[in-house]
Write a structure and sequence with these properties.
mainly alpha; 434 Repressor (Amino-terminal Domain); 0% strand; globular; 5 helices; 64% helix
Length: 67
């Protein structure tokens, strides 16, 4: 699942903890863990918030090339 890898990769590049990203996205820290471990996928609205917080496009998070 590309989205899990990209969430983790971008979070690390932005020097964010899971808790910090969760606060920015408006979800719980355990939810970030679930996304990064590929237990579940974020909703469409969460993908939009993740992209904003991580400074990338939704397309990039979903596995398309380019930011």
């Amino acid at each position: 699942m590309i989205i899990a890898q990209r969430i983790r990769e971008l979070r690390m590049e932005n020097h964010l903890t899971q808790a910090q990203l969760a606060k920015m996205v408006g979800c719980s820290q355990p939810m970030i863990v679930l996304w990064e471990k590929e237990v579940c996928e974020p909703t469409a609205s969460a993908i939009v918030r993740l992209a904003e917080a991580l400074g990338c496009s939704c397309d990039y998070l979903l596995g398309f090339d380019g930011y």
